[in-house]
Amino acid sequence: MSAKNTEKGSENGSDLQKVVQLDEIDRKILRQLQQDASLSLDDIARRVGASKTPVWNRIRKLREAGVIRKQTTILDPESLGLDACFFVLIRTSEHDVEWAKAFVEALRARPEVVEAHRLAGDIDYILKVQVRNARAYDRFYQSLISEVKIHNVTALLSMEEIKATTELPL
């Protein structure tokens, strides 16, 4: 990993974020870890054409720089009986700080919400909700609207997952 970080900010200069400059070996290591984080250090080193200690040092530096946030296990929802995936489009008439804080807390408290994004445009938020079935989704929905005021909700049932990955393009 290059020691050089560049700063990337918004047009007005706020929200500065450091972008880590990666070399090809870093990219190869990250590709291997994205595909299978359970690989041994020996396997990663062999696959990227480097020795074990430098690979370990690079991984450590990538963690310290925040490039690698965490390692996790991806589970199969259907094997666990979570057959229904809903994409929930939310419009709100509330835009104050207190409402936003309550809304975010409500989402974080619900394990069914596996992704949540605040959007630009006509829709304010989109949620990915993984549940057993439509009844479970309705219980989630009723619970959410009892806790926070929402102007409009549209739920879209995913009929087929065509592509899902956690791998970022490097």
Automatic annotation (TrEMBL):
Q: Which residues form the HTH asnC-type domain?
A: 22-83
Q: Which PROSITE patterns match?
A: HTH_ASNC_2
| Gene3D superfamilies from the UniProt entry | 3.30.70.920, Winged helix-like DNA-binding domain superfamily/Winged helix DNA-binding domain (1.10.10.10)
Q: Which InterPro entries match?
A: ArsR-like_HTH, AsnC-type_HTH_dom, Dimeric_a/b-barrel, Tscrpt_reg_AsnC-like, Tscrpt_reg_AsnC/Lrp_C, WH-like_DNA-bd_sf, WH_DNA-bd_sf
Does this entry carry the keyword Hydrolase?
Answer: no
Q: Name one Pfam family in it.
A: AsnC_trans_reg
Q: Has UniProt tagged this entry with the keyword DNA-binding?
A: yes
Which key words are in the record?
A: DNA-binding, Transcription, Transcription regulation
Protein name, per record: Lrp/AsnC family transcriptional regulator
Instruction: Please give the organism.
Output: Paracoccus pacificus
